[in-house]
Amino acid sequence: MTLPGWHKKTTAQVLGDLKTPEGGLSSTEAASRLKRYGLNELREEKGPGPVSIFLNQFKSFLIAILIAATIFSALIGYFTDALGIIIIVILNAIFGFIQEYRAEKTMAALKCMAAHEAVVLRDGREARIPSRLLVPGDIVILEQGTRVPADMRLLEVVNLKLDEAALTGESTPVNKITKPVSKDSLADISNMAWAGTSVTYGRARGVVTETGMSTQMGMIANVVQEAGEELTPLQKKLDSFGRRLGTLILAICAAVVLLGILRSGPLAGLPITQDLLISMVIIGIALAVAAIPEGLPIVVTITLALGLQRLSKHNVLIRKLPAVEALGSTTAICADKTGTLTKNEMTITQIWHSGKTIEITGEGYSPTGEFLFRGRPVHPSTDTTLKAILRSGALCNNARLVKDKGLWSIIGDPTEGSLIVAAAKAGIAPEGLSRHKRIREFPFSSERKRMSVICRADRSFLHAKGAPETILSLSTHMLRNGQRVRLTQRDRKVILDANLEMTSKALRVLAVATRPLRDTASQRQAESGLTLLGLVGMIDPPRDGVREDIELCSRAGIKVVMITGDHRNTAVAIARQLNLNHGNVMALTGEELDNLSEDKLASIARDVSVYARVNPEHKVRIVEALKGKGHIIAMTGDGVNDAPALKKADIGIAMGIKGTDVAREASDMVLRDDNFSNIVTAVKGGRAIYDNIKKFIQYLLSSNVGEVLVVFLAILIGFTDPATGAVLIPVTAIQLLWINLLTDGLPALALGVDPPAPNIMERPPRSPKERILSRGMLTDIWLVGVIICMGTLFLFWLNLPGGATKAVTMAFTSLVVFEMVRVQSVRLKYRIGVFSNRKLLLAMVVSILLQLLVVYTPVLQPIFTTMALGLVEWLEILAVSSTILAIIWLRDRLFRPDI
Known about the structure:
- The protein is α+β, with helices and mostly antiparallel strands.
- The protein has four domains: 1-228, Calcium-transporting ATPase, cytoplasmic transduction domain A (Distorted Sandwich), CATH 2.70.150.10; 233-310 and 683-895, Calcium-transporting ATPase, transmembrane domain; 323-342 and 543-673, Rossmann fold, CATH 3.40.50.1000; 348-537, 3-Layer(aba) Sandwich (Calcium-transporting ATPase, cytoplasmic domain N), CATH 3.40.1110.10.
- Helix content is 47%, strand content 18%.
- Residues 222-229 have low confidence and may be disordered.
């Protein structure tokens, strides 16, 4: 539905036209409208369908030539070979299709997980739902940092400012109102919030008017269409390497064909026949198909996708693939304290006023507990200053205390929630404060370090809360034992000393203040001349397991830095509880940071483990300082102003619970539970994914090198058939394609889900400049390739007196078994148990069973040029192929190559 002129109508008219009650739509009505209007999403160009993906498997130049050659062979009478090769090509295409289709589906599923959410009123209650399920008529709640999920008419606003640059080009945030607007220019319509814009300040409620392609953003959908998936640096390197390797292999295969023709023709004193040309060309093409790692890009993509899926089960959502590689190189994690290193379950345990400290009992958000002074109960009804602190804290608040299924919880900020709970313990319920009507609000920001509201009952009062230093600087009086007195310098020192004592106990401290004023006062006037009521101390205990994870980071060569807006003492106390930097805590405040030059900051950044009382813009300087020392930085953030630091960091990590949409948009990774431990899990997962890709590359390339060397050296040596004297090649074209199908398929994929090495977090971070094919890996690939070649040719030569068919069967089968042994040998230096990857074992069993099928099935024996092998032959194959394990084990013990 597109109804023009929403901005010209009153809010009552808009709600009436949309048939939206004040409590929002019912779930039933929303479901009905969703069917009518469709999902709230921009239509994207469809990716390739299943048929296209399948047909793409045949677009390879080599596959096309192979098909043409086999068809020509069939036309001149080579029906059996042609049929066998075509069947294997089709099977290979089917397997390639399954791989690619699975990768597409996995990435699509991960993309859906990354979808935005919106807070709506449904059935009279606030609910968080995926933005794609919004419908016209839904009432949406907007908070600072959220992205506007659909076009909506604003119903209520509190100092609301929107960044509309993406839509209108307006570079500065736009102030919003609720009154009807007569203008029709998009930039002048100040009572609408447009899909795709973001809230930079304040909060609001709005009713959805258009969704999906009917929004203003939808009308210019071509502008916002997402680009294709970004290739990671690793994928780009492998793509380039694959092209170079492919060219080299084609040259070798051409040499093999030429040498084979010469060996079987002129060098043997025989003419070059049509049969010889065709057979050698097909062998050359088959060898190229088997040796060129055409499956490398898709298996790397699948390994990345499956790794991301596993991380998502640990509440880690990777938004950008390059972050996976950066995770394995991370050398420093800069983490926010509140909610990341700590539980973000604030509980007020102390209130200081008039020179005395009152203890508060109770845990969590349950509104039960006592107020004690020197161990004796104190009731707020007899302590007017205590009551004033609790009342002002509850009024200067946007959180709500709710009970669901017997459990108490908070909707809103946990810090504000703790104030609501403390007030409830004193019998001050929100219903009892309803006569204090809120007139205005000046929202909290990290720069202001305070929030204040103007409420009117019999008269108007401003209620403020914030950092003690900030509130104290705005105060001229204090409430002492119920009496308003002027603040002296001595009073200020006593208050600051009380703040220091509370923060040294790891308490987060807020000051609460108030003052009477006129409704028309400006913000500057309202937040001056305050009367300080007292200090509120709340505890936010460290998360379970974080101390152990910080120790794990230390062993892994990763520096952990705590960043917080809290007081230095609070931050240092928590840091010592967490044994940050083994208890040797060097702290720096935002004020001290401002007084440091870039060079000085860079020189000490390596030693600083706590940054306290910092603003979001300080984070950018911290990142730059650590980067200047060569660190690869993972930086957490949740607010609008954290976005620059998240973009600047190598890995920007947004919070999934308390994080804003703006922060998530700027991030590479989202923690769905805000838990620091899952950053460590992600680093471990990133290292494991990279390890698995390296294993796959080693396995694939060493096997391919072995196959190429077998054919090349066999032709160079010139093995001959004992019966006919003709030059004999150990493996046929169809056998090469079969080996490619068996070994490059299931076993290679199963390596992608290999578990992490037991010592994966005992290694130093990987250098981002490290080449995927290091000198050690290349040496390993060539060493194993030579072992496979020599072992296969030895078995071929050993069994040649028994006939060509037996010798070829031995070479063919030994290559398959060699590569099954190889897939385990690449795991040796990672110290991963043989039975730790059941999928790999299953893949190996399936590959061996398929090989037995072509060796022992009479119908398939003529097609694959095989014969049944006896026990002795199998013992020979197992004995020779196991040399890989022996040589690799011996090499690792003697030389201890790096992983």
